[in-house]
Amino acid sequence: MSDTTQIQAGRDVATLINVFTVAPERQAQLVALLTRATEETMRHRPGFISANIHASADGERVVNYAQWESEEHFRAMLADPGAREHMTEAAALAESFDPRMFSVESVHHV
Prior knowledge:
Distance between the termini: 26 Å
Largest sheet: 4 strands, antiparallel
Number of helices: 3
Structural class: alpha+beta
Radius of gyration: 14 Å
């Protein structure tokens, strides 16, 4: 399986989209934490494919778009103590967060 983000309808991957609401003065800190967590821990977990960290222009949101080989791989990562430590730190920086699993239903290009 490719280790880059490929967005395709019907692709057999589990897609996590986690939207964090954050105070604008903490956005850069949250982006740095999620980037470090991905490099140090998440990318080494079985089933990890990719993660993409997005920062909103208004400073109030950070979005993590991540792909896993399966939802089971994602759930196994949640039980990892190292991953949990990073997730606890991220939750402390954010005002709220809303992680959800998605499937890609439609993709459009020019």
